[in-house]
Design goal:
Blueprint (H helix, E strand, L loop, with lengths): L8 E4 L9 H14 L6 H19 L3 H14 L7 H16 L8 H9 L3 E6 L3 H10 L8 E4 L5 H11 L6 E5 L2 H10 L3 E4 L7 H4 L11 E2 L13
Parallel strand pairs: 1-2, 1-4, 2-3, 4-5, 5-6
Helix pairs in contact: 1-2, 1-4, 2-3, 3-4
Bound molecules: magnesium ion.
Length: 234
Amino acid sequence: MGDLSLIKCIAFDADDTLWVNETYFLETEQAYCELFKDIIPEKEMSEKLFATEMRNLSIYGFGVKSFTLSMIETALNLNHPSVTKERISKALKLGQDLLKQPVEVFPEVNQILVQLKNKYRLIVATKGDLHHQERKLKDTGMEAFFHHIEIMSDKKEKNYLNLLNHLDIKPQQFLMIGNSLKSDIEPVINIGAQAIHIPFHHTWEFEKASQQPLNQKNYFQVEKITDIMTIIPI
Ligand SMILES: [Mg+2]
């Protein structure tokens, strides 16, 4: 187990760590698949959409706008006369609604940030779309707590090393808190930094993809975000 007394900077993942995200993506995807269910079974459409998203990751990156473009592309690729302009418009609207979805912050996040802010440099380390993530932080009034927001193009070891370099801190002074073992925990402990895992009940297929068994001794796991206060020195 790491030594949290060395920590100087705490980075929070945003989606499904500070606020609900995957739940709304799943609802949108269900509505999208339903929109085409007379043409293709919903499960198959969902698989096609995921394949399009994976194909597009390197050109679009993460986030709702990329997801929306992939929804449109997947529908067009059905190459079916019933994929009308109206249906494409509906798919586009689903993406726009997802962007406009009000932010549902997890309970007591603000109180936690108030307490941590005085002792630690707090940052947000997230993937996704810059404009969208910034707006969510602004809408929730949370931006005031954070030193800065790091929108990461990916969350691999090299991305975290760049981030630490940027912050000018050593790995053992960095604590990452997030819901994804693949993106928030594994690369972080691999570079010698520390991590707290807070699982969320929905996990995006991509985040499950290459989840490897990790040595539980190298990171902490808690049930909900308020529990981090029982292990972070304050
Ligand atoms: Mg997350």
